[in-house]
Design goal:
Blueprint lengths: L2 H27 L15 E7 L6 H9 L6 E8 L6 H11 L4 E5 L7 H9 L6 E4 L4 E3 L3 H6 L7 E10 L5 H21 L12 E4 H6 L10 H11 L3 E12 L5 H21 L9 H45 L15 H21 L3 H5 L9 H11 L2 H14 L6
Parallel strand pairs: 1-2, 1-4, 2-3, 6-8
Antiparallel strand pairs: 4-7, 5-8, 6-7
Length: about 425
């Protein structure tokens, strides 16, 4: 076998390893996927909601929190980061409407990122737990109570909910709807081996004393929710996810917005890898599994993209030379033997791998009966959308990664 064949086999082995790992985790923990701990104590909790130019959604976010149903919710601190629209005036109106719960605050100047506004709001929190949601996210009724029980464990640092897409009307958001469900499914599986590596901002609860101990959010990192998760893990605290605690968020509806969001996510990952570089291969799960997994993912993505580029280039050169010689020799440009089909072992490996990928995607999508009942009229994706997601959408990840690395090293980073 030549070098390229060994590379293909290596990729297949790695892919199948992680695929079987996730399937085994699912089969072993299937009964725990929807687990919610008993609520033995109603811990006091306050929410911090960072807001910048979100006048179209901030009202609904506040209403969802006020009516969430948790009786020991003390404060909803909405932090306006010097918005240029009418957001702050709307927030003050809700403060008048719910004076016991809602507190409107404004940063002295625009912080330029969500972490700055979150940290500013956190200083007003005096409760046992501190929670965050985004100004364009809408926690489902009862979601707070479903997450609280985990904090009976004194080592519990943070609990995250399930993030789903609210706006599912156009082609891009339908793709993201599938993506977010698969991410939710994968994140819950990773909980079984204690390797949840990010607790996204749409719905997350921290133990306040641990949040203060580690210094809150790093406002220099472009993905503060990933960095703080690594910080919590590195201090020896636990991270959990409650799948039935759902929050619906507004996903990007335009490709440019989606592209910028994914660039920011990737750059934040690079920043975290550098910040925690001394933790590589530590005995904990951060250095032993999470960070090596990131490195492996980056390597196989970049190498795979380079390999695809190499094969396309050699194919183009071959076709160009064939065309040139055919034209000079006055022979047919296309011969019938070019249409022959001789499948080799790599072809069957590819079919085998793609088949299992389909199984994993469908398994994640159809896993939770409760989620299927709460689709709010959204029809399940058809074959075309699923195919585009698996063949085209996922193939964009390595491209985004390369562009992110370029911007990171050139320091062309914008929130």
């Amino acid at each position: 076998m030549d070098f390229i064949t060994y590379v293909y086999l290596g990729y297949t082995f790695i892919s199948l390893y992680f695929l079987f790992l996730f399937i085994l985790l699912y089969l072993q923990g299937k009964k725990e996927m929807l687990f919610t701990p008993l609520l033995t104590k109603k811990y006091s909790i306050s929410f911090v909601v960072p807001c910048y130019n979100e006048e179209s959604s901030i009202g609904k976010t506040i209403e969802n929190l006020v009516n969430n149903g948790y009786s020991n919710l003390k404060k909803i601190i909405v932090v306006d980061d010097c918005s240029t629209d009418n957001s702050y005036n709307l927030i003050k109106e809700y403060q008048k409407k719910y004076p016991r719960l809602v507190q409107a605050v404004q940063t002295p100047k625009n912080t330029g990122n969500a972490a700055g506004a979150k940290n500013y709001g956190a200083q007003f929190v005096k409760t046992e737990l501190i929670a965050f949601t985004d100004a364009d996210s809408f926690p489902e009724k009862g979601s707070i109570e479903k997450m609280i029980g985990y904090f009976d464990d004194s080592e519990m640092g943070v609990v995250v909910g399930s993030i789903l897409v609210q706006n599912r009307g156009n082609f891009l958001t339908k793709l993201q709807y599938i993506e977010y469900i698969i991410i939710k499914f994968s994140r819950k599986l990773m909980e079984f081996i204690d390797v949840i590596f990010v607790t996204p901002g749409p719905l997350v609860i921290y133990r306040k004393k641990i949040f203060d101990k580690i210094g809150g959010f790093d406002d220099k990192n472009m993905t503060e929710d990933l960095e703080i998760t690594w910080n919590i893990i590195s201090h020896g605290y636990k991270v959990k996810m409650n799948a039935p605690a759902r929050v619906y968020t507004i996903a990007p509806e335009k490709w440019k917005e989606w592209f910028n969001q994914r660039i920011r996510w990737n750059v934040g990952g690079y920043q975290a890898m550098i910040k925690y570089r001394k933790r590589y291969f530590d005995s904990g799960m951060l250095g032993f599994f999470i960070m090596p997994m990131f490195l492996l993912y980056w390597f196989i993505s970049l190498f795979g993209l380079a390999l695809v580029g190499y094969r396309l280039l050699t194919w183009a050169i071959s076709k160009y030379l064939s065309f040139s010689y055919s034209a000079q020799g006055n022979v047919a440009l296309i011969a019938l033997n070019e249409f022959s089909f001789n499948p080799d072992i790599l072809f069957f490996f590819g079919i085998f791998l793609f088949g299992f990928s389909i199984v994993f995607t469908l398994l994640g999508y159809f896993d939770h009966k409760e989620e299927r009942k709460n689709r709010k009229g959204f029809k399940k994706p058809g074959f075309f959308i699923m195919s585009v997601y698996m063949i085209v959408y996922l193939a964009l990840y390595p491209v985004i990664m390369v562009i992110s690395m370029y911007r990171f090293f050139r320091k062309k980073m914008v929130w």
